[in-house]
Structures are given as C-alpha cells and as structure tokens.
Amino acid sequence: MLRRAAAMAVVLLIVLTLVFFLMRMAPGSPAYLIVGADASPAEIASVERELGLDKPLMVQYATELGRILTGDLGESIFTGDTVSHELMLRLPITLELTMVSLLFWIPLALIAGRVAAARRDTPLDATVRIIGNLSIAVPSFWLGALLVLLFGLYLPGVLPSSGWVGLAEDPMGHLRSLVLPAFVLGLGTFGVTANTLRVSMIESVRTDYVRFGHAMGLPERRINRSLAFRNSLLPTTAVVGQLVGVMLSGSVLIENLFNLPGMGRLLVDSIRRQDYPLAVGATLSLAVFFLLANLIVDILYAALNPRVRQKFAGT
Amino acid sequence: MTTITSTRVRVGPRRRLVVKGRHVKGMTVIGVALVSCYLLLAIFGPMFTVDPLQRTGDPLAGPSAAHWFGTDHLGRDLFSRVAAGARVSVLVAVISVGIGLVFALPLGVCAGYFAGRWPDELIMRVFEAIQTVPLFVFAMVVLGITGVSSFHLGPIEVSAAGKIILLIAIAATPYFARVARAATLAEIQEDYISALRLLGVSRRRVIMDELMVNVLPPVIVQSCLWMAVAVFAEGALGFLGVGVQPPTPTLGGVIADATRYMMAGAWWYCVMPGLVLLVATVGFGLLGDGANDLLDRGER
Amino acid sequence: MTIAIEAEGLTKHFSLKQGKGSGPWFRARGMRTVHAVDDVGFKVASGETLAIIGESGCGKSTVARLLLGLTEPTAGSITISGERRVQLVAQNPWSALNRRKTIGHALNQPLLIHRPDLDKDGREARVQELLDLTGLPSDFLLRYPADVSGGELQRVTIARALAAQPRVLVLDEPTASLDVSVKASLVNLLCDLRDDLGLTYLLITHEIDVARLLADQVLVMYLGHVVESGDADQVFDNPVHPYTRSLLDSVPVPDPRRRKELLPLAGEVPSAVDPPSGCRFRTRCPHVLPKCAETRPTARESGEGHLTACHLTAWSPS
Amino acid sequence: AGADDTGGSSSSGSSGTLSVGLFEVPVGFAPLYSNSQNVRWVTEPATDTLLTHDASGKLVPHLAAALPVAGPGGVSYTIRLRKGVRFHNGDDLTAEHVAASFNFIPGSRGKSQFLSLLAPWFNKAVAVDPLTVRLELRMPYGILPDQLARIPISHKDFIAEKAKLVATGPFQVGKVVTGQSMQLTRFDGYWGPKPKLSSIVMTSVPDPSTRLVNLREGKIHIATGVQPVDIAGIKRDESLKLHEIQGTGGIRAMLNMTRKPFNNPDFRRALAFAMDREGVREAVFHGEAEIAQGPLGPNVVGYDAAYRPYPAKADLTRAKELLEKSGVSKSTTFKIMVSTSGAARDIAQVFAENWGRLGIKVTLDVADPANWNRRWLIRDYDMSLTVQEYGLVGGSMPLSQFTVYRASSRQNPGYRNGGFDRDFGRLFATADEAERAQLAGKLNKILAEEAIELPPVYPKLLVAQRAEVSGLDEKALLLGRLNLRGVSISSR
Amino acid sequence: MTTEPLLSVRDLDVLFDTARGRVPAVRGVSFELAAGEVFGLVGESGSGKSTVLSAIMRLLPGVAVANASQMNFQGSDLMSMSAGQLRGIRGTGIGLIPQRPMTSLSPVTPLRKQLRWFLGDMPQSEIVDLLDQVGLRAVAERLDGYPFEFSGGQLQRLLIMLAALARRPSLLLADEPTTTLDATVQAQVLRLILDLRDRLGLGVVFVSHDLGVIAQVCDRVGVMYAGRLVEAAPIGELFDNPRHPYTQALLRALPSRYKRGERIKVIEGTAAGANRLPGCAFAPRCPRAEAMCREQEPETRSVGGALVRCHFPEDAAGANKPKEAAA
Ligand SMILES: Nc1ncnc2c1ncn2[C@@H]1O[C@H](COP(=O)(O)OP(=O)(O)OP(=O)(O)O)[C@@H](O)[C@H]1O
Ligand SMILES: Nc1ncnc2c1ncn2[C@@H]1O[C@H](COP(=O)(O)OP(=O)(O)OP(=O)(O)O)[C@@H](O)[C@H]1O
Ligand SMILES: [Mg+2]
Ligand SMILES: [Mg+2]
C-alpha cells in the first residue's frame, strides 16, 4: 500500500512537472488578459511581478512545488478564489457524470456480453457485437452533436439536450439533464466491456474448470454464473479500470458539448484564459481522480481475484 | 470512441489469443473494405473534386447532384471538404502512429528486457504519468498553452499539425510500449533467447533479429487499432477547436462548424463528415481485429 | 580421464519478489528467498554422462542454468575444462526455437558465429551434415517450428546445439514431452552422438528409465540438496537414501507381472522458500530420527564412489 | 423613468425567474473591470448609473438628482446625488462611493476597454459633500453626460473585488456558479420602481446552437448572440421573437502598417477592392448585415449610407490595376490573425478566397484570446481580424472606432496622421451634435479611403427571446445594454 | 453375454470440423467395460484417447460430430439422451478425473463453496469423512482457501474424491490423471484410484500414454493408433503377446526394456496424417504391410483373448516377442 502511494506520488510529480513547464513554455502570460487590451509594457510587467512570473523558472517551479506539497493549490488568477474551492465546485459534477455513466453502461454491458456469449453465433449475438463495435467506434462528439440536434430540434422537451440542473434545485430535472451526456460518455465503455466479457466467457468454455463442472453434472445456470461469468469478470474488471481514463478524457469533450460545468469545462476554460494555477489544479486533480479510480478498480480486481488479494493483504 | 482498443483477453497457460467466432473473416473483410473506401476518398477524393476552399454554391444547400454531400455554411462543397479532411486525418494518424512506434518499440523492448530493474521502472513510471493525464486533457493543456498556431521549439518550428501529430504520438507511445514490453517479457522467458545467447549470438542481434519479429506483430495490431484512435483524436481536437486550423479542412473542424448550423436544419453538414469519420474508426478497428487474428499464426 | 565439468558447492538462492502478477502496483515489500540449489557438487569425466534426477522443483534446471552461465551462482564454482563449449537442449522444443523463423535460419545462426571460415556454400553443406547427423530430411530447412512434430523439433534443437561444436551438452529433460516411440528414437540419437562425437552429457530428467539408459553417473536431488550420487549401476540397483528408494519404487514399471505394491511417500514436497531444517527430506521420510531436524547429514561413502547424505546411511533397511 | 411606476407593488412583481443564455458568464464580474459585453449584461440589473435614457432616448437623471452642471471651460462637472438610495449591503449611497467609482478609472490595471477610452480625459473625482460629487477633467469632454449613463456606480469597498458586486441596482447578486451561472435576486431595498421579476439567472451556454435549443425548450427566455443563419427559423417560430439591432458591433480588420507591404496604400486599396463584401454578407451573415465602407456603421453619428468608395462585390480588375501600381509582388503571402470565434474565421476564409484570386496567398493564423491580446499589443501580425460587440462603448457615439488610429494609442497598427488626431480631439470635446456628425464622417472617410481599416460588413446584434417575455428594452440594446428592469414573463 | 456391461461403445466415430476440413479423430472404436474393471486406453499423442472420453461424457466441443451405433451406459443409450438426462448421469453415473488438477477448479472461489456446488447440502461431517478417505484430513481445515493454495497432488485427490467417491458413480473416466504429477505423488494418486475401484467396484476407463502406469493399474488395455482402436486385450496378454504390429513396436520401444548402451528398436515414420489414410492407418510404418493393407481397412478380429484390427494378426503374433527383442 505504501509502495503504491509512493508510486502514485511519483507519477503525480511527473505530471506536475510536465504541466508546469509546458505552461511556462506558452508565449505570453495571463498578464495580457488581466490588464486588458490597452496596457503599457510597464503595466504588464507589474502584473507579472505581482503574479511572480518574473522570477527565474526554476524558482517559480520550486515555489509552486512547495506550495502544492503543503496542499495549497493557490488562487485562480481570474476569480481570486482558491483553486481548491473552484475544484470542489466542479469535481462532483464530473464525478457524478462518470459514475452515472458507468452505473448505466457497465451493468448493461455485463448483461449484453453474457447473453451474447450464451447465445453465441445467433442473431442476438451478432447484434450485440455489431452494436458493441459501433459503440466503440462512433466518435462521441459527433454522436453527442447529433443527439443535441435530435432532442433539441426534432424532439424538443423529451430530454434536455444540454445544461446542468443542480440536484437540490430539481432532482428529477437533475437526472434528466444527466441522461444524454452520461449516455454518450459511456457508450464506448459498453462496447469494450461487453466484448471483453463475451470473448472471455466464450473462451472460458474451454477451461478445465468449466469442463469439470460439466463433467460433474452441474446445472447450466451454475456453470454460466459461478464459473464462466465469475471468472470472466476478472479480465473485464481490468479493462474497465483502463476505461476510466478514457472516460475522463471524454469528459473534456462531453462537458463542452453538453455544457456541463465539470472538470472538463473548467480545464478548457482555465487554459483558454491561461489561468495557470487553476489549470494546474484541474490537471492534477484529474490525474488524481484517474489514479484513485484505478486504485478502486484494482481493489475491486483484488476482491475478485484471490491470488491478488493475498498479495494485496500481504503488503 | 475510446482509446482502449484491445479487447483481446489472454487466457490459459499457453499464451494464445482468443479465437473469435466464425464471423471474424467477414468482419475483417468489412474492415478492409471500409478502410479502403476511406483511403480512396482521402487519396483520390481531393484530386477529383472542386477546391474545398472555394465557395461554389449557396450556403447550407442540401445534398444534390452538384454537391453530393451538400454545401457548408459558406457555400463550399462539403464532399470536397470532407475528402480533404479525410486526407489530413489519415496523414495525421499514419505519421503519429509511426512516430509513436519509433519511440515505443525500443523503449518497450528495453523495459521488457530489463523488467524489474531500473530502466524498466523509469520508463514505465514516465509512461504511467503520461497515461495518467487523459489524452484530451493533455492535448488541451499543450495546445491551449502553446497555442494552436506553430511554435518554436528551439530552432525547430513545429507547425500546428505537427503539434497534433506529436501529441497523438506521445499519447500512443505508452500503449505501444506496454504491448512491446509485455511481448518482450513473454518472449525472453522462451528458451530460444537463452539458447541463442548460449550459441554466442550477440545481445543486439538477438533483440533485432529474433525478438523483434515476435514483438512486432502484437505491436502492429495495437497500432492498427490506434489508427482508429488517432483518426478520432484528430477529429476530436479539431472539434474542440485546437486541431489543425482553418483554412485546412479537417473532419473534426467541419463537424465543429456544423454544430453551429444544426438548428438551421442542416443535418447533412454534421452527418456526412461524421459518417466518414465513423467509416474510418470502424474500419481501422475491424482491421486491427483482423490483423490480430492473422498475425497470431505461427504460435503453436 | 579428464574432467569435463566440475562443480563445487554450487548454491543458488533467488530472492522472490512476490506478486509480480498484475502491473507494477502489486509488488510486496517482503523479499523471500528460494533455496533453489544448495551446496551441490559433482564431477563429470569427459565423454561420460551424468544424470541428475529428482522431482519437479528440486533445482535440476537451476543447476543446468548455472552450468550454462545463464544465471550467476550465489556461491560455489564451476570449472569446465578447455574452451567453454557448452550447449543446451531444453525440454520444450517449441520454446527453444523462434516460432517466426525457419528451421534453416535456426541452424545457420550458430554457424555464422562459430564458423566464420565458412562461406554460404560451406554453411549449406554443414547444415546438411547436421541434418544427416540428427536424421532429419533436408526439406525441413524452409519449414517453421509449428509445422514440425515435437520429436523432430527436438532433433532440430540438438542439431543447432551441435552446430556450435560443443564438448558438453546439457540436456534438460530432452524427452519429457515426447511420445514413447519418438522418445526412443531420440534416446538412440543421443547415444549415437555421444559415441560418434565423444560428447559429455549432463542429463537432467525425472524419467528414471531414460536416465538408466544413458547415465554413467547419477546425482539424486531433493529440494536443492544432493541426497545421493554415484555410479549409475550402484545407485539404480542399490539405492541407499530413503528418498532414492521411494523415487525408484514409485516409477511404474511397464510390466503387468511386476506390479508393485504401491507404497507411496506421504505428503507433499515442501516449499523451497522455507525448506525444512536439517535433512530436507525428513518431513516425508519413513525413518525420520530426531537428529534429522537438527543437522544436515553430510555425504558419506556407502560404496565405491557412491555417496549418500543420510543420517541413517549405516542402517541398511531390509 | 419615474419612481412612481404603476406596477410598483411587489406582489405583482413576483412573477418568476427569467433565464438568460449568454456565450459565457464571466468569472469576474465587477462591472468596472468589464472587458466584454457579457460582464456588462450580467451586472446591468444589479447596477445603476448616474444618468439614464428615457423612452425617447433623452438623458435623464437616475442616481443623480439632476443633470450634471458643467463648470467653467467644460473641464469640471458637478453632480447632485439622489437621497435615500441604498446599496445592497444596506449602506447609503454617498458622494464618496461615486467618487471612488470614478477614481478607479485612471488606475493602472484591470481597466476595461471602456474605461481606457475615458482615461485620457479624466482627472479625478471629489466628494464635495455627502451628496455632491465633482468630476475634474483634463480637457473638455463634450460627451461626458452620455458617458455618465454608462458608468455603473459600485460600493467603494468592493470596487476592486472582481467576483463581488455591491451596487444599488434593483437586483442583487445571488448564487454564483463560477463560469456557469449567476443568479440575481430582487433587491427589496431598491429605491426605484420595483422590477417585475423575482430573479434573473444568467447561464453560460457557449454554443449558439445549444443556446437556441435551450430557448426553444424554454430552458432560457432570452438568448444572446443569435447566429444569422438561425434568423429564418426563429422568425418562423411563433413562440420566439427576435431583436435585430444595428450598429452595436463591428468587424475590426486591421493591417499592420509597420510591415511591408501593408505600408503601401495602393496595396491596401487593392485588397479593399478585391474584398467580396457581399460574399461575406451572404455566406457568413446570411444576408443579415449591411455592406460596410469604413469603421463607422449605421446608427452612429456621421454615418452616410450613400458613401460607397468600394464595390459590394469584388472588383478584381480595379484591384489588379492597383496591385500593379503598388509595385508589390503578386506572389505575396500573409497571414490573417483571427481569434477563435467562428465568424472571424469564416470572414477570413472569404477574404482569403478572393485575395487568392489576385494571386496573393493568404492563410489563417488562429490565436486564442490571451495570445491574441499579446500579439496585438506587440504588433506581431500581418492582418488582424475580430468581430467585436461594442457593448458598453456601443451606441451612437463612435467611442472605439477611431481611437486606435491616434498616434498615441498603443494598439495603433502603424498609422500616423496629425490631422486625424486633431479632428479626433475635437470630436470628443464638442458638445455640438452636428459638429460631431461632421467630424465622425470625416474621420471615417479618411480611414476608408486610405484603406486603413477594411470592415466588409456591419453586423447586427441579434437577441432572441421567448414570446412570453415582454418588456425587453430595445433602446438599451442599441446602447449595447440588456435592460431587464421592465421585463416580465406572462404565464401561459 | 450373460451380464450387461457397464459401458459399451460400438463404432464410435468423431469428426472435427476445422478450418482445414474434417479431421476424423476417432474412427470405429468399440469396447466394453464391466463393473470393477479398469480399462486402459494407450496411444500416442493425438491418437484420439481424450476424444473417446469426451464422447462418452457427451462433452465434445461444438465443432465435433460424433456417431456411434451404440453407446450404452448401464443399458441406457448415451447418444440419445437429452441435455437434462445427461446432466443427471454426469457426476452421479459417470465421474471424470481431469488431467490438470491445478486448473480444474475455479480459481476465484473458495474450495468450500465449490464443494457445495458439487456436493449439495451434504453435512460437514460427511465431507470431512470423504476428505479423510482420500488422505486429505489435513485439508479439511483449510477449505476456505483457494485452489492455488494447494498442491497438485492434493487437488488431484480432492477431484478424485469429488468425481469418484462423493457421488458414487459407477463409471470413472480418468484422462491422464497423473501426468502433471511427480513420481512419488503419482504413486499416491494411482493407489487411491485402485483403492476406490476395490472398495466401490467402479468401472474405470484409464487413459494414459505411459505404458508403465497402464501396466500397473489396468485389467484390460486398448491401444489406439490414429483414431482406431487397433488392439484390445487383457493386460497380461497384451504385454506378453502383442498381436498388432503397432502394439509390438510400441512395447519394443520402451526404454525400460533395454540396458545401458543398447539401441532401442524404434518405429520409423510418424503418425501424422495417418487418420485420413484409406487402408490400415499403420500400414505406412508397418514392417510387414502388404498391398492389401494400404487399400483395405482391416476388420476387428478376435485372436486369443484379444481383439485386433489387422489383416495378419496371426502372422504377427509371436514373431516379435519383446523378450526376443531384448535378448
Ligand atoms: N528465476 C527464478 N526466480 C525465483 N525462483 C526460481 C527461479 N527459477 C527457479 N526458481 C525456483 O527454484 C526452485 C528450483 O527450480 P528448478 O527449475 O531448478 O527446478 P527443476 O528441478 O528443474 O523443476 P522441474 O522439474 O519442474 O523443471 C523451484 O522452487 C523454483 O520455483
Ligand atoms: N477441438 C478440436 N478441434 C479440432 N481437432 C481436434 C479438437 N480436439 C481434438 N482434435 C483432434 O483430434 C485428434 C485426437 O485428439 P485427442 O485429444 O483425443 O488425442 P489424445 O490421444 O488425447 O492426445 P494427447 O495424448 O495429446 O492428449 C487430434 O488429431 C486432435 O488434433
Ligand atoms: Mg526443470
Ligand atoms: Mg488427451
């Protein structure tokens, strides 16, 4: 566990370093945006001094590192609010979106994959595979745009085609506003998960334990559920773990497309404004989010896989 | 569209890839057909169509004999724009996957060869960091910061398209390297490696002549699948407005423009380029699956 | 009589990183040591065959790898007389050949290194010679390992090993994966090669029958220790160590009239990570004494050149 | 506007929440920091100005008790304040607050474009007594009363706070979700007529199509930044209403005259003749714009519809002659620096297409906002092109159109003309309307004829609303303002 | 026939539909098995031994086509059984000991739970008792563990307990149950199987390619070559007096019959592709094959106590006694 935490810290450090130096490579500085269009060089310099942008790069890096290590992500250049506060406003939205999307698609994928494997080579199986393949391949931003069109222009009022409704304001509206983005965000997850499960369940037919189960006259249901499905969950879980990163990536697209005020939007906005502290904070927290999600999936994986569980407990 | 493309699951003591059902061949053929269509469009489309930068019709005219895909909001022929965009996509995808391979192969093989020791740790940790920042986050950070126009990296000027290519290549590298590493790791357990070393074959030669032929196939499969991801990523970046910049038409850029005109009922504007993009992603995906089945031969 | 191989006090411990299974995350801190080979010594005279027998995991292959220089010993020394020409024939021929390269490529590879004097034609002739020597048809050269049966492939790995003109061949379970008839022809081949080329073999096997046919000397290992060694005839016909006896007894004889009363050893082979103290066989030994747990028995002569490591050596069971 | 409005009772005013969809809800919304129209729009309901325009467009006192009184030489103005006005935090409005708001103007940073336009004339503000403020100017500024109708008065303690707003308007800032939405709730302590709405929500909906969808869905009541292409659809829709306002924005197309060949007037004019203005109007604005001939657009003093130095369609023969005459190589290439806005990129592409016919290869150079500003300031561009909404500087006075061409402007693209500067000074000093019109027309002609600034068309401000919303003030829109004070929503 | 055999298989054919066409894996195999009898099946890799067992269990993969004129288990026809009936027979009527004990139980479920699947609601004490009977008393406390925590020998005994002991099947199919085990552990397992046979009167089909194992445990042996059962005989007779040239060659090639330094007499050629040949499958490698052998399939004939599929069983008999070879 300790080792893992250390590894995570190293990864985050690399990410931070990367992002920091990339940011500073950018031409110009946020000062130009702050001072407005009619500023004198002296004014710009004074703003830069105020932001600490005039110091040598390494000094800036060290200060920033020191600050972040103490848990202080700084303040947004534009709102003056603390970055952590800004993040706390946005993080739950992305989190919820991702969760809802996963909770919607993963069970569906598990069912589809299982049914397809059970009805192998039937039209049903073919349908699942075609839908699965399409769902992986279809460009999410395009599909999202078409859905906005569909629900905005042709089916107005059926589902909100964009925007965010707070849970407190209108719980039903809140759920409704999540439907389309969650649908698009997790679509690929469906295909990948269903495919993985299907393939691995079909493969499990040839395993010794399924054969032995048959030879012992176990009921079909038991074999499918306790042997084939249970064991196929392992590779499936591993794949889902990787998908979390994909979904985070997708949230940048989806949140902008559906106009959701989550981390993806924050990131795009803060970068557009060259709001360094906010952008660094957003990137870091997405990275942390990603690592945590992977940790959870790994724990889940360990829970499913006794071999790993033993080692996990041993650490 | 996702960046996780490999749904292959390795099961069992012998490393054997999952044998898919009998439909595999048909699917692969479809994949080849789709990719061929796409490549034909990308290579020859721009030669036989009107200039995608010239306004040759009314703005937002629907598909017709003169404009197969209709026109865009400025009255330019959508088909020629889509064809030109497809060309950009393919170029970006091919070059970025190529660059990714060039970086990933030696690193992945090196990591696999020194598995568990510091070169492996170092390489994998850096790749992990890259993978920790999702592609679009990474792209937004880089493109948002260095701007969407060309910039100077020391004495070298990196064009806007070059930047996107590099980005996709960097994002792909960890995936390729992981596959290469895993394949290397599996391969060096095989007896033939130690047998060859015993025979006095130099390490370099063992790696280049013997190991590589076995590491390449899974990496090629992965790169086929990444072609789909790269085409998608190029489109998505264009869609976010940080892709290859106008006037060069790109699929994502066209779709992004199209979203502004959807409420005017110009469905074709959004649908057509998206379908072409879909053809590419489905095609490359199926092709990757097919390559997987094909290149797996030779294993016992 | 020249000594071809001499090993003294060979020891190999692996430090075990646990749970290398799933990604870099699950790597435990606890390092554990596998006592794969402990204080193993032997001599093999030139032209002779030493068989190392013992059950799986007792460290046979590790001895082979140490001998070949594929792993560094934790302690001990290996002397191989003259030029260091040792080659390996391993158990799994599919793994021993690159599955994406032709057999011709496999045979040419060592020639390029060991026979730089040969031109292309010379190499071709030499490859043909090797094929003839191992009884393979020449149309094999263009085939891939997957298209060839296991027995034939094993011949290919032998031919490849011979291309380097070794003095010593380490045979790590060369016949384990083969059918009866194929196994027989391979044993013949090994006999012929030894006679024709004067090779020294280090044969590692758990097949007592094969060891009986090929070995001059035998070394019996149990859990990293040598429990008994000596002339093949002596060890096979007159085993002393309780483990050797059980092992030889457990081997089923293909003769229905010589059905043995199967009196197997109790229990399982203990783990090499945490081997029993003293005599490692004591947990399964039918004659265990209190002292077995305390001290490791030293090898004592129980006949000419016949060494046994057992506290009970003097005691001779009926 | 009198305080004794008929529907003044709060019971009739509690008719719900109005939702406005904007391109973005700015993260910092102190009105005096405003660089964008959006800031002004989201803060408008919460702020008051000293003067305001009445229904006929005439200036009337608002926070001021009476119209300002000019001092000798027109370099100072004295303003009496209305009594009994309260800030949202309960403090009384005093001259100190007003002075503080004005004294913010010459501050070194965070100035809006609007304030920077005022700064050269403005010296300082003094609180003479609790209800009297004196504004001191550096030189005569005839349009000051006009400007007093634009400058929002904030609480002195909160002027420098970017994300806080304490003013005296009929609404006060409620819940703010950074970058996403901003709620304005009715301020019960408001001194003037009570608004009919109980609250207003400003929501950021960056995508114009989405904005329109939201409007159709009823999720928002007012959508700003409507695209020309959607006009026809909105007009067909019974439940929607469209406001088309001329002269509240412009296309800023500047050539960097410190670089070759843009310092060559014939070359510039060749470009002007080869410009397909009609193409831009049809393709980019779907016919919903006027052909432009200079920076001065309709609805601005001095605009002359009959003034047409350049053809609507590209005149390539004339352009080629001029290009020949200029001696500039035909194989010139240059880049048009555009912001990420869709319209600017579209216009640039139409330009490129036509100039390409002259043999000049033009490519786009897209810069994100931060970069754009920087490059503009250091003149790192060949040609820059933006589509601007004037916002607070909109209205009938050409406040921003000519400013950059003064020799002293830091944004000047390399234009030096003493005569121009002199006329510019007089334009703003005079209080005489007719003289202003004459001077503005003259300046416009100079810029047009020398092809200093080449806007292809004058775009319109397009705001759509749902039919159930009534009382949206079109006159205010003309000034780039979104006056929601009289707005109500009828329940259907 | 006075008593009905426990299992009788007649003319069993199994074809595999593969990408390279139809592969006949088992051709015309017939044999019978009485209760309490151990019938060994030997033959080289790929000769179809496992396929025969799978066919009896009706567990062939989907690509297989199986045909038999008769396949009776305790008088009922296995070929015509429905899936439900088969499930009733599997485990309770016919038990199967798998070849690879390490992978034959689900790796992700504790043993206790898996035992429950197989044993239903058998009381704990009975389970402990069963474990005791296969020498796994010590394991009873560790049942919450997972399969990978146990050794191969332990698991194999556990599987034997499940397949042969717990539900008292009358027929046991064992597919190379000891090949993955060490010699000393193999002895343990073999002994267990024989014990059970003695105690429960099981009929056992024992597949192995190790003639040593076969010799130690079987009553009767069938020798398979290229999908054919070429010879079936009581164990003593087979070893003393093999009649089919393949059997003879196989026995001759046993290393244990030779002394150090002797050359083993081997069978030339390979079995590859033999299952597609028109005549006798062994003809290409047979020292005394005649034209007829290459064209015409030999019928199974009864010679002495043996059933032989050879045109010249008498000729071959005695001509090559292994002892002479060894002499
Ligand atoms: N690289 C390694 N790392 C850790 N442990 C090892 C390694 N190689 C071998 N071992 C352990 O050392 C012991 C001896 O292994 P070795 O392969 O020499 O046995 P063996 O007698 O050849 O067995 P087999 O008959 O199964 O081939 C085993 O317990 C094995 O698990
Ligand atoms: N699923 C399958 N698809 C195609 N061919 C198969 C399949 N299973 C077995 N075969 C073929 O059937 C033949 C008999 O195989 P089988 O496994 O029964 O042999 P075996 O005697 O058990 O061999 P081994 O000793 O290697 O276990 C072989 O030629 C094999 O290639
Ligand atoms: Mg070994
Ligand atoms: Mg088998």
UniProtKB/TrEMBL annotation, chain A:
The primary location reported for this protein is membrane
Q: How does it sit in the membrane?
A: Multi-pass membrane protein
One Pfam family, short name: BPD_transp_1
Do you know which PROSITE patterns this protein is assigned to? ABC_TM1
Ranges where the ABC transmembrane type-1 domain occurs = 91-301
TM stretches of this protein = 97-118, 130-155, 175-197, 232-258, 278-304
List where in the cell it is found. Answer: Cell membrane
Q: Which family does it belong to?
A: Belongs to the binding-protein-dependent transport system permease family.
Q: Which residues form a coiled coil?
A: none
Q: Which InterPro entries match?
A: BPD_transp_1_N, MetI-like, MetI-like_sf
- Report the domain of life of the source organism: Bacteria
Tell me the organism.
Answer: Streptomyces albipurpureus
Q: Which UniProt keywords apply?
A: Cell membrane, Membrane, Transmembrane, Transmembrane helix, Transport
For this entry, the protein name equals: ABC transporter permease
From TrEMBL, chain B:
Q: Write down the membrane topology.
A: Multi-pass membrane protein
InterPro entries from the UniProt entry: BP-dependent_transpt_permease, MetI-like, MetI-like_sf
Q: What PROSITE patterns would the database entry show?
A: ABC_TM1 (PS50928)
Q: Under which name does UniProt file this protein?
A: ABC transporter permease
Where is the secretion signal located?
A: none
- Where do the ABC transmembrane type-1 domain residues begin and end? 86-288
Is Membrane one of the keywords UniProt gives this record? yes
The UniProt similarity line reads: Belongs to the binding-protein-dependent transport system permease family.
Task: Please give the start and end residues of each transmembrane region.
Answer: 24-44, 88-114, 135-154, 160-177, 211-233, 266-287
Q: Which UniProt keywords apply?
A: Cell membrane, Membrane, Transmembrane, Transmembrane helix, Transport
Q: Which domain of life is it from?
A: Bacteria
Automatic annotation (TrEMBL), chain C:
UniProt xrefs under InterPro entries: AAA+_ATPase, ABC_transp_ATP-bind, ABC_transporter-like_ATP-bd, ABC_transporter-like_CS, Oligopep_ABC_C, P-loop_NTPase
Annotated ranges, domain ABC transporter: 5-248
Entry annotated with the keyword Transport: yes
Question: Where does the source fall among the domains of life?
Answer: Bacteria
Keywords recorded for this protein, A-Z: ATP-binding, Nucleotide-binding, Transport
UniProt keyword annotation of Transport present: yes
Q: Which GO terms describe its molecular function?
A: ATP binding
Which protein family is it in?
Belongs to the ABC transporter superfamily.
Q: Which NCBIfam families match?
A: oligo_HPY
* Family annotation (PANTHER family): D,D-DIPEPTIDE TRANSPORT ATP-BINDING PROTEIN DDPF-RELATED, TRANSPORT ATP-BINDING PROTEIN
What protein name is recorded for this chain? Answer: ABC transporter ATP-binding protein
Q: Which organism is it from?
A: Streptomyces albipurpureus
Automatic annotation (TrEMBL), chain E:
Q: What positions does the domain ABC transporter occupy?
A: 9-251
List where in the cell it is found. Cell membrane
Please give the InterPro entries that the UniProt record associates with this protein: AAA+_ATPase, ABC_Ni/Peptide_Import, ABC_transporter-like_ATP-bd, Oligopep_ABC_C, P-loop_NTPase
Enumerate the Gene3D superfamilies for this protein. Answer: P-loop containing nucleotide triphosphate hydrolases
> What's the chief localization of this chain?
membrane
Keyword set includes Membrane: yes
Gene Ontology MF terms in the entry: ATP binding
In Pfam terms, one family for this protein is ABC_tran
According to Swiss-Prot or TrEMBL, what is its membrane topology? Peripheral membrane protein
Which UniProt keyword terms apply here?
ATP-binding, Cell membrane, Membrane, Nucleotide-binding, Transport
Q: Which family does it belong to?
A: Belongs to the ABC transporter superfamily.
* Protein name as it appears in the record: ABC transporter ATP-binding protein
